[in-house]
Design a protein that fits this description.
It is a single chain. By secondary structure, this protein is an alpha+beta fold. The chain contains 9 helices and 4 strands; from the N terminus they run H-H-H-H-H-H-H-E-H-E-E-E-H. The chain has helices at about 1-15, 30-45, 50-65, 70-75, 80-95, 100-110, 115-130, 145-155, 195-209, and strands spanning about 135-140, 165-175, 180-185, 190. The chain has a 4-stranded mixed β-sheet with strand order 2-1-3-4, sandwiched between helices. Helix 2 (about 30-45) crosses helix 7 (about 115-130) and helix 5 (about 80-95) runs antiparallel to helix 6 (about 100-110).
Length: about 210
């Protein structure tokens, strides 16, 4: 069923006829956002419009971040879908978004999926990072690392990437982990945080009592 929805999304998104065969993204993404991002990637690939669509998606995400009113409007379930399509089409056209991408957001509105648009953005960024040979790495620490520490982390993480790939490092700060760090590289997850070590030790003590 999910594959059928992807095919339907790709056919509706496209402004020209495309074959039934989906173009698979370089990395698999999941959930509703993943299905729509996959459909978008497939259709844009067939139209040889990936660069333009990628630029459009970035611009729309930035626009939503700057305009709370637009973001709230898109996520409001009480507004009729036709009204959403009409307003959203006018707004995106005014921002010089390409017709194909405008059609895609119209599809999201028509299917009642605008509330999942943030998931679509996340999945889209992941697909395009893989398409460009980028390995996304998220590092979370209890406090901000200085330039020297960040460089050391980046050098250590290069061991996770293959020849021809590049590392896209995202540094995050979360005081609740107390110390250490949490590293996410692609589908790998390594939790070296002090908070987790304390929790593990606490559980061991409870089991021993």
């Amino acid at each position: 069923m999910a594959a059928s929805r992807c095919l339907l999304a790709a056919r509706h998104f496209s402004t020209s006829s495309v074959g039934a065969q989906m173009v698979k993204p370089p990395v698999q993404v999941y959930g509703v956002g993943g299905r729509y991002a996959t459909a978008l990637y497939s259709a844009a690939s067939k139209q040889k419009a990936l660069d333009q669509v990628d630029k459009d998606m970035s611009n729309v995400e930035t626009l939503m971040g700057k305009s709370t009113a637009l973001s709230d409007f898109m996520g409001n379930p009480t507004i009729k879908k036709q009204q959403k399509i009409s307003v959203l089409t006018d707004v995106l056209k005014g921002e010089k978004i390409s017709p194909s991408t405008v059609n895609f957001f119209g599809l999201l509105a028509d299917n009642g999926r605008l509330g999942k648009v943030k998931e679509v953005f996340v999945s889209w960024r992941r697909i395009m990072a893989a398409h460009r040979g980028e390995v996304v790495c998220n590092v979370t620490t209890a406090k901000t690392l200085d330039a020297s520490q960040q460089k050391q982390v980046q050098e250590a993480l290069k061991g996770f990437i293959k020849k021809g790939e590049s590392l896209q490092l995202n540094m995050n700060v979360d005081p609740s982990i107390i110390g250490g760090m949490i590293v996410e590289v692609g589908d790998k997850y390594v939790d070296m945080s002090t908070a987790t070590k304390v929790k593990t030790l606490t559980n061991l003590i409870k089991e021993a009592v």
